[in-house]
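Running low. Got one?
___
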Amino acid sequence: QVQLVESGGGLVQAGGSLRLSCAASGRTLTTYKIGWFRQAPGKERDFVARIRWSDGNTRYADSVKGRFTVSRDNAKNTVYLQMNSLKPDDTAVYYCAAGALLGTSYNYWGQGTQVTISS
């Protein structure tokens, strides 16, 4: 089992920045990938970014490339999502999730943190 707890959400103006944190516990994460997803009201949950714990390899959705950065702190067992140049369209509940390196699924999810961007 992997437990994930997100934090760092809030209300910011368009153009501002936020950093989300995802603290992981329960298992060594070297064989996992950690993903960030978001779900806006009335919409499906979308992929935002992910990082492979073992080598730090990252991947981003086109909508956030160049604005968001995902990183990890091995000592703290924490993954971060630095979000810059925020837009009202980025408003959503953001979730982090963990899944095995092999495959595309994510088996463990956090509770989510609300991000609201005002125009």
The CA atoms of residues 67 and 84 lie 5 Å apart. The chain has no helices and eleven strands. The mean pLDDT is 95. The first strand starts at residue 3 and ends at 7.
